[in-house]
Amino acid sequence: MAMDLSTNAHCSSHTSKENILPSNKTNALQLQRAKQRTVLGVMSENEQHGRSFNQESYISKHSSFSDSSQLAFHGCASSSGYDVYVEEACEVVLAASGQEVVAGTNYLDGETDCLQNADLKLLLELSSNSGQDTSMRSEPDFALMPEEMMFVTEYAEDIHRNLRESEIRFRPSPGYLKKHPKITNGMRVILVDWLVEVVHEYSLRSETLHLAINYLDRFLSFVANVKQGKLQLVGIAALLIASKYEENLPPTLNEFVYTTDSAYTKKQLISMEHVFLKVLAFNMAAPTPNQFLHLFMSIHSVCANTENLARYVAELSLLEIDPFLQYTPSVVAAGAYCLAAYTVNRSLWPDSLHTFTGYTIADIGPCVTDLHKLYISAHSYPQQTIRKKYKSLKYCHVSFITPPAVLPFL
């Protein structure tokens, strides 16, 4: 489905376009496409907040890219040696060591000359107003590292040490939206909500979702002036790469194109994937809150309700840049674990995890507080895909659990 993200444009329902899939999922998917599907389009703020939160099919939501809020973030050091900026759709600037250079000045050498003409053209297109956007549906499970490896006690400390070192190198910049005046926090929320639907629809793993959001945020930290019409292309490329990295049987390229209602072609998606990998310098093994949660639970096991509630809270944190990109993935995971444990059985941060991680309740307290606020307000979000996902039996209906009114350490 094509998307119109121009100012004051409204989303409208369309019948599905023809798109022949090589998968045996075709018939089932086409039946679902007969329903209205999520559109990453534009609605007024009143329409966004006036919509019903209790729709039977979250595929039939209309979403808004309207967000007038101004966000303030703390700076974060770049995790790459160079940044790629796109300015006014007429020049590309590659910055190394903080020095900006206009494209065409023969600067492209070493690492950066991997960005060939086709890549530069696509980066320029990201800054153009051409482009459309759409959406799709549903969810998954598991972690980047096999759980059985995490349960091997003799490796746990080495795994944790490596993840803690890596999470610093692969952190997105909390303030990256300042470099994208055409993209708002609300647009990103809608995109993440849609990616959750796609992950659910293809039964992908939770780690695939977490990796895709990390790739998305890191990419947007390195480029500038990405336009509304290209945001979904960036998002689906992030998910494509994450699924190739994490899944045994990732969806096909045709299926990824299908999720966007063919708003983009296979060629565009392949080109975007190529640019993505070059911008991230092929550094794809990024630690995520999901990985840390699995590790923490291998050290100190919890009941199924606590485990799924911690995963639910950690997944909710993917929706918001502010404040959660200010915390490392390990802190978000520790906060989610602590909040879930207190909600289910009124326990907090166990001594075993304090010893293992070095984190005290004072260290993770601010993150727990922010996660608690998010948990309480989750029902009021226009985007309800994550809550609906965790209402299922598979996840022990944990999104029905009432959050605690107050936390003991506040």
Automatic annotation (TrEMBL):
Domain Cyclin C-terminal span(s) in chain numbering: 287-404
Pfam families per record: Cyclin_C, Cyclin_N
Keyword field contains ATP-binding: no
Assembly description: Interacts with the CDK1 protein kinase to form a serine/threonine kinase holoenzyme complex also known as maturation promoting factor (MPF). The cyclin subunit imparts substrate specificity to the complex.
Lineage: superkingdom: Eukaryota
Similarity field: Belongs to the cyclin family. Cyclin AB subfamily.
Function: Essential for the control of the cell cycle at the G2/M (mitosis) transition.
Name listed for the protein in its UniProt record: G2/mitotic-specific cyclin-B2
InterPro entries registered for this protein in UniProt: Cyclin, Cyclin-like_dom, Cyclin-like_sf, Cyclin_C-dom, Cyclin_N, Cyclins_cyclin-box
Species assigned in the record: Larimichthys crocea (Large yellow croaker)
GO process terms (BP): cell division
Keyword vocabulary terms for this entry: Cell cycle, Cell division, Cyclin
